[in-house]
């Protein structure tokens, strides 16, 4: 174990982080008042998004160019173009588009976020960090940018550790799990979308419907300090572990599920119930109940110790003020004792309101479904 | 709750936090000669920021430190921690998951050593190491090394009195100090000097910008049966700023910058290099007392030699006296034999140095130029004696040409 592990500092740093999050979210009210660019032609935008969803990227690009031609100063069209270029694998061009957007609309967090994702894909973590810090500077409550920044910090930390310890972890799985933002929420007027057709299209609102879930690089914590082993060896271990984790993870079913069937199968109903109960424990600030939904081998973020993760969660959940968490839009794929569920999570607290796509991997344990992996996107 | 990394470090090594207030460097160091050349002041400031929960400033300063010392591994580790602290709670110094624990603890030890030295620098600058009782007039500088503290102290000869100039972080043997055997990965403790200078071109990259061999094993080491050789002061490989406190096979290792700085003051064959496991410091008064009593003793020995009273002269020698080929009985017999032929003896000693040997034994190394004249013989030599305290009395236990 670490030399100084029995000290009170752990709790303190947790508090620091919690404090940071709190103070960021406090100023989020400003975010919604930002209505910089004029709303673009909503129909054209919807059409482009539809084409993108169908993978007809060149047509989407064509329509986007038309939109830009008609409204050259509008952020929306250019933002979409950046997304299409990203999906077409033209990263350099996408970077150029998003960079220009950050110059023309420095108050928008989304272009910064997406720029950061692209930089992170190129392993330019310092640039990614700067971009995300800018996104958060303009919108302190921006949840996805925070999540991404957390990942970038972890990457930078790992690079610093490599230099400190003369390790070479470049062979580690470095696949980025950063989330691209697909929509410019901050450009929309404060008003809610006028068509509440929630059942149909996956909602024309809010935040990122993220990438087709990429497996998060999972670094398992070291089992035991290998005292006398040659020093280079252990560096390779996490990579193997990550690769294993990747293999083990069930692929989301390629078959796109239609809208939720009215009669869910018994298993799917169990899973839905498990997640509803998880969300309601969260809403009720029932920390014990909330944590009981996690499997013993739950993969904590960045492989942090379970205890630390639990106390962090306890602190976040138990903070003052009302919390309301609800989940819907489930897409469940089951493989034996494992289920991958994609859904939307709506989170409302005194200071923060988000709606984000989430993916959770559950494992069957006795009669219960327990959470083994949890990530945004 | 107000303690974090630095608290951990210092609590863990049992330092009372009362020595020098951290975070206010150089302001309360009245000694003008004190040098703040290394990264310690910046490190101390960084830990001060962490202590006060200003993690952003800590990171900014760590990045600045790395600009100055890009190969400073400890700073990279702190940077990693500060970045990681932004995405999750951290509990210790060095949170690299899956990293070899050995390397992490090496860097933690370096942090402790450097911060401790920085905190205690006031006490070091104000007191005198017990070993440097008297410097020869031509010894411009003296070096004292504390292996436990991973520190090298440089003193300037100010009319025989050592005046503190600077101190530097050093690494020593993987298995500590007190060398006895070849290959025991320990650094010897004792009174040494550098015997030559080896230029970097003749050395591998491991030795950095240069190397200065020491005269280990010295007379006393040989007499104690200590084995081994090749104990050097040397620099650091080009990809590294500094090595952990315990890193070498017995050598004393400095950063390349520090080695260059120290080397400027080294006089080959002359500059004393005293290595101790734990340096004892004396107040100036106590140091003065110890120094005069030994000088008095040496003068008594010289006087008694001139008196031609052989028995009185022999009282200065230990029953365990031993030179290379003579024991006490043989030595006494020889002195008695030649003593009868002496009508007069004049002994002058000059350029004397007196160094206390580190360790439990009360042992002092005295070196001087001796001008001996008598009615039937005269000679001049550089002599070295080891004086040992037996039953409260200083006695010569070894002597020979230096």
Automatic annotation (TrEMBL), chain A:
SMART domains: TPR. SUPFAM superfamilies: NTF2-like, TPR-like. Residues 230-260 have a biased composition (Basic and acidic residues). Keywords: Repeat, Signal, TPR repeat. TPR repeats lie at residues 109-142. Residues 271-374 form the Cds6 C-terminal domain. Residues 186-265 are annotated as: Disordered. It comes from Propionivibrio dicarboxylicus. The keyword Ion transport does not apply. This is SnoaL-like domain-containing protein. Residues 186-213 have a biased composition (Low complexity). It comes from the Bacteria. Residues 1-31 form the signal peptide. Residues 214-224 have a biased composition (Pro residues).
Automatic annotation (TrEMBL), chain B:
Signal peptide: none annotated. Gene3D superfamilies: 3.10.450.50, L,D-transpeptidase catalytic domain-like. Residues 141-276 form the L,D-TPase catalytic domain. Pathway: Cell wall biogenesis; peptidoglycan biosynthesis. The keyword Hydrolase does not apply. It comes from the Bacteria. InterPro entries: Cds6_C, LD_TPept_cat_dom, NTF2-like_dom_sf, Transpep_catalytic_dom. The active site is at 234 (proton donor/acceptor), 251 (nucleophile). One of its GO terms (molecular function) is carboxypeptidase activity. The keyword Secreted does not apply. GO terms for biological process: cell wall organization; peptidoglycan biosynthetic process; regulation of cell shape. It holds the Pfam family Cds6_C. This is Murein L,D-transpeptidase YafK. It comes from Propionivibrio dicarboxylicus.
């Amino acid at each position: 174990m670490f030399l100084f592990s029995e000290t009170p500092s752990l709790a303190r740093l947790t508090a620091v982080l919690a404090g940071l999050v709190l103070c960021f979210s406090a100023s989020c009210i400003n975010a919604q008042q930002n209505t910089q660019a004029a709303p673009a032609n909503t129909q054209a935008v919807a059409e482009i998004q539809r084409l993108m969803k169908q993978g007809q990227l060149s047509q989407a690009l064509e329509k986007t160019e038309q939109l830009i031609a008609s409204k050259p100063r509008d952020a929306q069209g250019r933002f979409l173009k950046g997304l299409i270029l990203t999906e077409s694998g033209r990263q350099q061009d996408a970077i150029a588009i998003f960079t220009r957007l950050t110059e023309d609309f420095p108050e928008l967090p989304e272009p910064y976020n997406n720029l950061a994702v692209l930089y992170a894909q190129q392993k330019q973590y310092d640039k990614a960090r700067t971009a995300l810090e800018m996104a958060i500077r303009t919108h302190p409550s921006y949840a996805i940018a925070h999540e991404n920044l957390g990942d970038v910090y972890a990457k930078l930390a790992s690079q610093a550790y490599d230099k400190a310890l003369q390790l070479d972890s470049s062979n580690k799985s470095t696949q980025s799990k950063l989330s691209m933002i697909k929509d410019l929420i901050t450009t929309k007027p404060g008003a809610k979308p006028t068509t509440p057709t929630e059942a149909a299209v996956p909602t024309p609102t809010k935040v990122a419907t993220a990438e087709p879930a990429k497996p998060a690089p999972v670094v398992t914590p070291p089992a035991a300090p290998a005292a006398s082993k040659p020093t280079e060896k252990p560096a390779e271990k996490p990579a193997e572990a990550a690769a294993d984790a990747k293999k083990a993870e069930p692929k989301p079913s390629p078959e796109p599920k239609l809208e939720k069937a009215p009669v869910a199968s018994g298993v799917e109903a169990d899973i839905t119930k498990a997640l509803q109960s998880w969300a309601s424990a969260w809403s009720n600030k029932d920390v014990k109940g909330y944590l009981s939904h996690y499997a013993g081998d739950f993969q904590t973020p960045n492989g942090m110790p379970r205890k630390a993760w639990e106390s962090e969660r306890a602190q976040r959940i138990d903070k003052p003020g009302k919390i309301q968490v609800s989940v819907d839009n489930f897409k469940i794929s089951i493989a034996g004792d494992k289920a991958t569920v994609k859904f939307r999570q709506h989170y409302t607290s005194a200071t923060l309101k988000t709606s984000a796509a989430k993916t959770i991997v559950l494992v069957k344990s006795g009669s219960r479904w327990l959470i083994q992996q949890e990530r945004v996107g | 709750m107000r303690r974090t990394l630095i608290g951990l470090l210092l609590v863990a090594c049992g330092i009372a936090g009362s020595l020098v207030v951290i975070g206010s460097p150089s302001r309360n160091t009245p000694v003008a000669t004190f040098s703040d050349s290394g990264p310690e002041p910046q490190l101390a400031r960084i830990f001060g920021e962490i202590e006060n929960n200003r993690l952003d400033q800590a990171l900014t300063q760590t990045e600045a430190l790395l600009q100055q010392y890009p190969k400073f591994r400890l700073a990279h580790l702190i940077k990693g921690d500060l970045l990681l602290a932004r995405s999750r709670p951290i509990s210790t110094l060095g949170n690299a998951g899956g990293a070899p624990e050995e390397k992490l603890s090496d860097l933690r030890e370096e942090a402790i050593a450097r911060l401790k030295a920085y905190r205690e620098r006031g006490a070091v600058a104000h007191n005198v190491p017990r070993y440097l009782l008297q410097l020869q007039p031509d010894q411009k500088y003296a070096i004292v090394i504390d292996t436990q503290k991973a520190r090298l102290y440089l003193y300037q000869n100010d009319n025989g009195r050592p005046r503190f100039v600077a101190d530097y972080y050093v690494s020593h043997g993987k298995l500590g100090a007190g060398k006895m055997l070849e290959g025991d990965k320990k650094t010897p403790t004792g009174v040494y000097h550098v015997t030559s200078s080896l230029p970097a071109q003749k050395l591998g990259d491991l030795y950095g910008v240069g190397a200065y061999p020491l005269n280990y094993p010295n007379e006393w080491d040989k007499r104690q049966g200590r084995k081994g050789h090749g104990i050097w002061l040397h620099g650091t490989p080009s990809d590294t700023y500094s090595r952990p406190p315990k890193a070498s096979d017995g050598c004393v290792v400095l950063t390349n910058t520090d080695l260059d700085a120290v080397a400027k003051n080294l006089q080959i064959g002359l500059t004393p290099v005293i290595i101790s496991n734990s340096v004892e410091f004396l107040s100036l008064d106590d140091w003065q007392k110890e120094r005069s009593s030994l000088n008095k003793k040496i003068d008594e020995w010289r006087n008694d030699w001139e008196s031609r009273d052989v028995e009185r002269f022999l009282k200065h020698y230990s029953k365990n006296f031993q030179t290379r080929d003579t024991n006490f009985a043989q030595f006494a017999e020889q002195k008695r034999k030649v003593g009868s032929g002496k009508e007069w003896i004049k002994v002058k000693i000059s350029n004397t140095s007196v160094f206390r040997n580190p360790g439990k034994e009360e042992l002092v190394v005295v070196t001087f130029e001796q001008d001996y004249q008598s009615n039937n013989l005269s000679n001049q030599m550089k002599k070295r004696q080891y004086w040992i305290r037996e039953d409260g009395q200083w006695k010569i236990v070894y002597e020979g040409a230096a």
